[in-house]
Write a structure and sequence with these properties.
163 residues, alpha+beta, four-stranded antiparallel sheet, three-stranded antiparallel sheet, 4 helices, 30% strand
């Protein structure tokens, strides 16, 4: 029920903006499969963002101003998270990649949280080989293998919309 504060990452010529939440609005696992790495197309986090979150966080009018995003030829998302290259390009300073949890997300047991209201580690869009994240320091990290998919990290949704 709390409004989400958004940061503009990029404005396109057609008036569409790429927006990221200023804080981690949720803390959850990328996926619950810890045997293998899970790509974005098949992970739990993607399903949650594009169903539960999309339906509960945005009004019908807000959804009408949103555009879909195509991170790969087989994927179309209404809501996504940044990939490693996108995070480096759109937020080049590691100091600017540092994020904190919302009060709601802070109630979860979050891996990589330095303090109750301090910086946290947050998910990036992974691939079939690695789990990717931004550490509490703002540094980008790749974990090889799926054994960390179920860690509870911060989530910073990304949308494309006319505002």
């Amino acid at each position: 029920g709390t409004p989400i504060e958004w940061n503009i990452l990029r404005q396109f010529d057609d008036g569409v903006f790429c927006l990221i939440s200023s804080k981690c609005i949720e803390a959850m696992a990328y996926d619950y499969n810890t045997e293998d790495s899970v790509d974005w197309e098949n992970c739990y986090l993607r399903r949650w963002l594009n169903t539960t979150f999309l339906e509960s966080a945005f009004s019908r009018e807000e959804k009408s101003r949103m555009y879909t995003y195509h991170p790969s030829k087989n994927v179309t998302d209404g809501v996504t998270i940044l990939s490693n290259p996108e995070a480096e390009e759109l937020i080049p300073s590691k100091e600017n990649r540092v994020a904190v949890l919302t009060d709601y997300a802070a109630t979860k047991n979050t891996y990589g949280l330095d303090a109750k209201d301090g910086p946290c580690t947050w998910w990036l869009r992974g691939n079939s080989l690695t789990s990717q994240m931004v550490l509490a320091t703002g540094q980008i990290m790749n974990w090889f293998g799926g054994n960390r998919n179920n860690r509870t990290l911060g989530v910073r949704p990304v949308i494309f919309a006319k505002i």
